[in-house]
Amino acid sequence: MALPRRVADLAVYEMALSVAALGSMGRAATEHGVSQAAVSARVRALEEALGLTLFERSPQGTRLTPAGSLVADWARGAVDAAWAMEEGVAALQAEHTGRLRVAASLTVAEYLLPRWLVALRTELPETSVSLTTRNSTEVADDVRTGAADLGFVEGPEIGDDLDSQVMGHDELVLVMAPTHRWARRRAVIPAQLAATPLVTRETGSGTREFLERALETAGAGPTAAPVLELASTTAIKAAVADGVAPAVLSSLAVAGELEAGTLVTLPVRGVALGRRLTAIWRRGRAPDGAAAALLARARAAHEHRTRPARATWRTGAGHNLSL
């Protein structure tokens, strides 16, 4: 049976994902080594084939429409699967090549692992790495069943059947559109945040679980049902920028939007939103070879990142927030 014609060409979806991530046809063209006109033409052809407008184009850049966010969500899994298959086939073909299977939650996979893997590639150029991006609960399941040699999660709980090591720290921040009614406030308190329907990840997400537990610890009471659940950070940021509702996301994930002013952040008083990013593996099976090397690269990157340096972001009330 032939593939459906709308999904037969994954390369154009990968190109569209680059436009979404980089916010520019020109930057996506540089990423793929083609002309801006070629990227624009391929994206336009994709929109015509789907019968949907995927991007809003403006002098300030290019961003996903709500329909585009959903298509990007679906496409990302297919593109990731294609790359995972490529890595797997390459590992089978190479007689003396090592193979490392990594599963990671979204924040780590998108904002930290690429640099760690580049460093690993320099150290062990013959090692083939397959990366699966899932939520924290699913990553832990992959490690338990042996589907992944090593996992990276953001969730607050590590099962007794897993060994772990903290690889770094992260801060969750409350973000919203500059036009949101909260944008002129100085801060919100945990009870207000808990009572407000947010745009969130799906159940099982480390970010969502951490926020719910942090608010519970702060005595904020039960959290309101989400106004919208989405499976990717990119889709959440697009919905927030469109004014759907606020969201609580990793500071790593929103740094670019805060700098550009498409999102603003607001302090949450009285709740600790710092969290640990943790590597996990099966209990009693200490990582060795490529897995141990990747852990070493991750630790080195974290030590470099946590040297004295301060990033100051503009909040909705016109104040500065330093992290």
TrEMBL record:
HTH lysR-type domain segment(s):
19-65
Query: Which residues span the membrane?
Result: none
Any coiled-coil regions, as ranges: none
Where does the signal sequence lie? none
According to the lineage, what is the superkingdom?
Bacteria
**UniProt keyword annotation of Zinc present:** no
The answer to keyword Transcription regulation applying to this record is: yes
**Keyword tags:** DNA-binding, Transcription, Transcription regulation
Q: What family does the entry list? A: Belongs to the LysR transcriptional regulatory family.
Specify the protein name. Answer: LysR family transcriptional regulator
Organism encoding this protein? Actinomycetospora endophytica
